[in-house]
Amino acid sequence: MPDTTSIEKATGTAPVKVGAPLPAPAKGRSLWADAWHDLRRNPLFVISAALILFLVVLALFPSLFTDVNPRDGDPANHYLGRPELTHWFRPDWFGYDGQGRSIWARVVHGTRASILVGFGVTLLVTLVGGLTGLLAGYFGGWLDSVLSRITDIFFGVPFLLGALVVLNAVTDRTPVVVMGALAFLGWTQMARVMRGSVLTTKQADYVTAARALGAGTWRIMLRHILPNAVAPVLVVATIALGSYISAEATLSYLGVGLQDPTVSWGIDISTASNQVRNAPHVLFFPAGMLSLCVLAFMMMGDAVRDALDPKLR
């Protein structure tokens, strides 16, 4: 009979007593835990998250960065640009626009409108499109046909052209109205993504097992299908958020988006476009902030996609 002590030394295993409980197996990480593990080590995610955090702080607490009213103008500062820093939260080197208003103050306060519209539209389209795709993908049949045809009708309307038509019929274009118009036409992509993800997820073995054990329809949808089908929707929503901010600025530039007295990057870009040769600084700063904001969300979306896509692992 072989000596167990020599076998343990050779294999490096510890002795196991007869009747002793076996060690618990190591728990595998979920998709979300794996995604967060990868995101924390992705420089693209860290940089984009830092930029988005900075923009959110700008939007929520603009008084931390400037004490100047963005609507107050001084004719003496007409298109004036000063290469100096008069105060830590009032950099005059951003200059002034045609009405003598501080460009720095308008850039800071304009962040709120863009972030509000971007997050608001993304939340609305994710809820409406996600619910539509979930119902269509899970139940199928006539409900899927009806919801899919409605989605196709809205999908056939050009996004910006439809928003132009809708907003042109409204006289008071507040941020809430602009959010509603963009969400009214932008939910179709989320619905298609969610429907396709649900069709794949509901064929999984754990869904079949839950149905065999007598789980109800809504329990299966909310506890088993939705958590496992929502990852592609989150990726699309993160990338689309930057597109919605860009769409708001485009509509404001065309004169059918946000209106005064709302401070918006799109409004300032529209005002500055006529003086780009004489005062390029008036156009550069709001356009630069808009590009930085959209780029941050696009980078975040790419990082989230890489972390949640199993094919890229």
Q: Which whole number gives the mean pLDDT?
A: 83
CATH architecture: Orthogonal Bundle
Q: Based on CA inertia axes, which overall geometry fits?
A: elongated
Q: Which range best describes the helical content: under 10%, 10-25%, 25-40%, 40-55%, 55-70% or over 70%?
A: 55-70%
Gyration radius over CA: 27 Å
Tell me the count of domains. 1
Number of strands: 0
* Proportion of residues in β-strands: under 5%
Write down the secondary-structure element order. Answer: HHHHHHHHHHHHH
Describe it.
With 313 residues, this protein is mainly α. The protein has a single domain (31-73, 85-312), classed as MetI-like (MetI-like fold). The protein is built from 13 helices and no strands. It has helices at 4-11, 31-39, 43-60, 103-139, 141-155, 159-168, 175-186, 188-201, 205-212, 217-229, 231-253, 265-272, 280-308. The longest helix has 37 residues, at 103-139. It is elongated, with a radius of gyration of 27 Å. The two termini are 47 Å apart. Mean pLDDT is 83; it is low at 6-11.
Q: Which secondary structure elements does this structure contain, and how are they paired or packed?
A:
Layout lengths: L3 H8 L19 H9 L3 H18 L42 H37 L1 H15 L3 H10 L6 H12 L1 H14 L3 H8 L4 H13 L1 H23 L11 H8 L7 H29 L5
